[in-house]
Write a sequence for this structure.
């Protein structure tokens, strides 16, 4: 069972993906991690994010252990990591270097402890259009920029980060612009994706709407 969940930042993809992975015992691959790892590595080493060649070099040499180590850095999930990921992910060469890793995971999905899984939940921007276009179920989760900025702002404040709603909103809008207009795999729903706007929905509402779709696909595969 392969499910792709795409959409912009703070739309609710991560929460939904984690829930479905746990409920249906599927591996969970947050594809944004590979770009955050490359972007954050550039930030930590003082590299200019506009340096495409350096970004490509890091991407070509990125290993899973390095990615996991970087994921524990406090800026990995911060707006700093998010902005860096959005910049480097727009480079076609970087995306190509990391694409094989992401595609191959669907062939042999594993859990975090290395044990085999019967399927995978992909969480990203182009998982239904590029990484796994033959997925059993494709979802595109979205929400207004204002709602997403408010959600992300509250997350940052809860973590003790110094920022403002206005700054977060500016970052959200800028990231949407980069993600939707990049020449390499722009963020957009797959033609056969189910689109859900979570602006005025709770996570329970979203889960209740998605569950029948997942169950239907599972029944088809039996």
């Amino acid at each position: 069972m392969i499910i792709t969940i795409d959409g912009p930042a703070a739309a609710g993809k991560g929460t939904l993906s984690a829930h479905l992975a746990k409920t249906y015992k599927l591996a969970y691959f947050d594809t944004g991690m590979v770009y955050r790892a490359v972007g954050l590595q550039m930030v930590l080493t003082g590299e200019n994010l506009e340096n495409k060649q350096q970004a490509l070099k890091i991407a070509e040499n990125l290993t899973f252990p390095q990615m996991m180590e970087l994921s524990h850095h406090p800026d990995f999930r911060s707006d700093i990591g998010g902005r860096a990921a959005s910049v480097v992910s727009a480079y076609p060469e970087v995306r190509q270097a990391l694409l094989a890793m992401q595609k191959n995971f669907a062939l042999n999905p594993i859990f975090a402890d290395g044990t085999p899984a019967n399927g995978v939940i992909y969480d990203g921007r182009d998982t239904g259009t590029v990484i796994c276009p033959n997925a059993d179920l494709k979802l595109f989760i979205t929400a207004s920029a204002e709602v997403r900025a408010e959600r992300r702002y509250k997350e940052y404040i809860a973590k003790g980060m110094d920022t403002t709603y206005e700054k977060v909103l500016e970052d959200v809008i800028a990231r949407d612009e980069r993600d939707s207009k990049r020449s390499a795999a722009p963020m957009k729903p797959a033609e056969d994706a189910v689109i859900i706007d979570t602006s005025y929905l709770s996570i329970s509402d979203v889960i209740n709407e998605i569950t029948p779709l997942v169950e239907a696909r599972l029944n088809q595969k039996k």
